[in-house]
Design a protein that fits this description.
Elements (H helix, E strand, L loop, with lengths): L6 H19 L3 H9 L2 H9 L15 H13 L39 H11 L15 H12 L14 H14 L3 H11 L5 H23 L2
């Protein structure tokens, strides 16, 4: 945690960043364009010492229409540049019981929809009764997972007597579990960088998101060391 920042302020700041990333990876290019105009990514990378090249994440040369086309080509419409924005597509091993008739999946191969990562993150959602609004109903969609971390950070999740998440320490432990689950962002960021080699906006954004999660993971682990 940066010096002179209270714990409550730090959690609110974390929630804001995760909510921003969640909205962007859910396709809200207006939010992305506004953040680029405000040079938000440069400011965040500098303030948090996040190791990511954010030079391209400014509004210069980019309007909402071009960003919308770029988003759709990468994350919405299967094609030569498509990168699935959900964890199950980036596992190195296929799920044990996974079965699919999709033309994009061959039996015994990784690259799935609703595979083990979806089941694992859904179990974490269930622990606090969370249901993501973002991510097109895909539980391990990056937008849904970022939305979950934002909700945990700002205390928006509901803790009831029947939950096993009762205290602030329980919530922090749950956040660490989610951040460990998000290690799939390494493969995702690499894939986006290769597919977005021309414009580079979403490649840089995925790299920033991956670096931010790694930084955040180290901060949470250090706070309990």
């Amino acid at each position: 945690m940066p010096q002179s920042v209270s714990s409550a302020e730090f959690e609110r700041a974390r929630a804001t960043v995760y909510d921003l990333l969640s909205a962007i990876f859910d396709g809200d290019v207006a939010v992305l364009h506004a953040a680029m105009e405000d040079e938000a990514f440069d400011r965040l990378a500098t303030t948090l010492s996040v190791d990511a090249d954010v030079a391209v994440l400014t509004a210069a040369g980019h309007d909402e229409e071009s960003l919308h086309i770029g988003y759709d080509n990468l994350f919405a419409v299967p094609g030569p540049h498509y990168v699935p924005p959900f964890a199950s597509a980036h596992v190195t091993d296929p799920s044990e019981d996974f079965d699919s008739d999709s033309t994009y999946h061959e039996s015994g191969d990784a690259g799935e929809l609703y595979g083990d990562p979806a089941r694992e993150i859904s179990a974490l959602y269930d622990r606090v009764g969370f249901r993501p609004d973002r991510g097109d109903g895909i539980p391990d969609h990056v937008a849904a997972e970022f939305e979950f971390v934002a909700a945990l950070a700002d205390g928006a999740v509901i803790r009831s007597d029947g939950d096993d998440v009762q205290t602030d320490d329980d919530l922090m432990a749950l956040q660490r579990e989610v951040l460990e689950h998000l290690e799939w962002l390494d493969a995702f960021a690499d894939a986006v960088a290769k597919a977005d080699s021309n414009e580079g906006v979403f490649g840089a954004l995925a790299a920033f998101a991956n670096a931010f999660v790694a930084w955040d993971r180290s901060q949470l682990n250090a706070s309990t060391a």
